[in-house]
Design a protein that fits this description.
alpha+beta; 271 residues; twelve-stranded mixed sheet; 2 domains; single chain; globular; Carbonic Anhydrase II; 31% strand
């Protein structure tokens, strides 16, 4: 074996690789290296047993709240620690909106770039960022689960989150969600799929809205707390076919209910 010859080839290969890597530029280097590792780390959790909800805190130290947090979501909204408040210090301001869809590997997410949709809580405006779905429901009411659950994620000027949760049960076809459901990405995709028609969120929910408000967390890692939750008591309906269509993509993507601890749930009747 000619050791000197093979050593020379190895050195030449390293020098050539370094030159090519340099020609790619910082942006491509980042894509090939740091960004790929980041995506892998973020995708390391799931709803399966090996790296599911009971294991989230052990996957990454950044996920410690998933186990140690005292104000975690979702919860079972029962009769305990519920207080009635009809001050109506809450308002939904939604307009017909054209969303873009993507499958992020954990749910179907519909992004709102319009900046036209808001929740107003205590006089503070929270802008809608995205809507996504869970199968089955994450929140329960008096121990009852529902077929699915949708989350409208909002943020205010300080970066605080407010999430409007709506429960979903099997019933009639939901016309408001027809196009969105017809374009559900079947596999993880980075390129967003635009909807041709707008979604009228104001028509998605019942006219009379009984809601529950409490302080909780994200229901996915890193399970960050200080999230204001608004849960609509009356579920919306979608058809069995619509449920099956989502279930074919995500058979189960829900976190189990968490302890309420000393938190209070405020019940509000909106007109």
């Amino acid at each position: 074996m000619n050791i000197k010859y093979h050593s020379g080839l190895l050195v030449a290969f390293i020098l050539l690789s370094t030159a090519i890597y340099g020609l790619l530029g910082p942006g491509t280097q980042k894509t090939l290296g740091i960004e790929r590792n980041t995506v892998a780390e973020l995708s390391n959790w799931s709803y399966e047993a090996d790296n599911g909800p009971n294991e989230w805190a052990s996957i990454d130290s950044k996920f410690s709240k998933c186990e140690l947090g005292m104000e975690q979501s979702p919860i079972d909204i029962g009769q305990v620690n519920r207080r009635l408040d009809n001050s109506n210090d809450f308002e939904m301001k939604y307009k017909p909106t054209t969303f873009t869809l993507n499958n992020n590997g954990h749910t179907i997410q519909a992004k709102d770039s319009s900046g036209d949709n808001f929740l107003v809580i205590g006089g503070d405006a929270y802008k809608l960022v995205q809507m996504h779905f869970h199968n089955p429901s994450e929140h329960q009411i008096n121990g009852q689960s529902f077929d699915m659950e949708g989350h409208l994620v909002h943020t205010n000027g300080e970066g605080k989150l407010a999430i409007l949760g709506f429960l979903i049960r099997e019933g009639s076809e939901n016309i408001v969600l027809t196009e969105l459901w017809s374009k559900l990405p079947q596999k993880t995709n980075s390129q967003e799929v635009p909807l041709s028609n707008s979604v009228d969120l104001a028509n998605l929910f019942p006219e009379k809205k009984n809601v529950f408000q409490y302080e909780g967390s994200l229901t996915t890692p890193p399970c960050s707390e200080e999230v204001t939750w608004i849960i609509l008591e009356q579920p919306i309906e979608i058809s069995a076919l619509q449920i099956a269509t989502f279930e074919a993509v995500f058979p189960n993507n829900s976190r189990p209910v968490q302890l309420l601890n000393d938190r209070e749930v405020i019940e509000m009747q909106l007109q």
